[in-house]
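Operator note (shift B, R.M.): manual run for 3-hydroxybutyryl-CoA dehydrogenase requested after the automated queue skipped it. Running by hand, logging everything below so the morning shift can see what happened. Input copied straight from the record, untouched. If output looks odd, do not overwrite the archive copy; leave it for review.
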Amino acid sequence: MASAWVRVVGVVGGGQMGSGIAQLAATAQLDVILADVDQQALQRGMRNITSSLSKFVKKQVLSQEEADATVARVRATTSLSDMRDVNVVIECVSENEALKKRIFGELDEILQPKAILASNTSSISITRLAAATQRPKQVIGMHFMNPPPIMKLVEIVRGMATDDNVFATVKCLAERFNKVVICSRDYPGFIVNRVLMPMINEAFFALLEGVGTPQDIDTAFPEAMGRDSVIMLASTPKRRDTIMDI
Ligand SMILES: NC(=O)c1ccc[n+]([C@@H]2O[C@H](COP(=O)([O-])OP(=O)(O)OC[C@H]3O[C@@H](n4cnc5c(N)ncnc54)[C@H](O)[C@@H]3O)[C@@H](O)[C@H]2O)c1
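Run finished. Output pasted below as returned.
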């Protein structure tokens, strides 16, 4: 197994995606270090993990003991230097290229030479993020869908320099998380958002022209094309902000 050497996963950014990915890694029996600059975000992230696992307990997918042991495998920290001995970092901070580059640069100084740096970016070039480090061969995109514990897809994005062994390790790791893996070249939006964002854009134009209400547009797609094709114009301002960043 290409990812057998991976024992400890670091997750930077304990928000919606980071907490979900930390949960996935801990569920796969890996030790996890979850870092965020914001102590409250970390506490929220840990609560999200506990609450998501309790739903699996209710559905009898997990026992309460397994859920408790999973939470215990996640250590929360506000200090990036605690990432020193992790094998793979999955970066999940806000979709801001300058911020991600700064964090990649800092992690590059902290991590062991063999460690892999993955980003959960929705659309930022992996090649450009890799250029902020001295280890471009070990930088890769690992784009999870929201919410990570539920959605099956992980889109793996190879930068211009990404090494074949790094790709194999990260693909194998995503499979240990029980995910379906696709591989995208490093183009804006990769595969998923390249196709999804124009559709969401068009939905906003339809709204602007008064073709339908947000609720009618949102209802149209799951009902017309299957439950999973959701646009969610009527969703929270937070989700709309994320879409604007992409
Ligand atoms: N939300 C989605 O639907 C979704 C889906 C797929 C991918 N993504 C991508 O995942 C990433 C995170 O998105 P999210 O929705 O989880 O955002 P979020 O706002 O919920 O979480 C981001 C977290 O990053 C933390 N952060 C900011 N600066 C930091 C720093 N310097 N060091 C450590 N932590 C820092 C924030 O405190 C916050 O807790 C983005 O790149 C986004 O494009 C999001």
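Quick read of the result: The longest strand covers residues 139-144. Strands lie at 8-12, 31-35, 74-77, 88-91, 116-119, 139-144, 153-158, 180-185.
Leaving this for review. - R.M.
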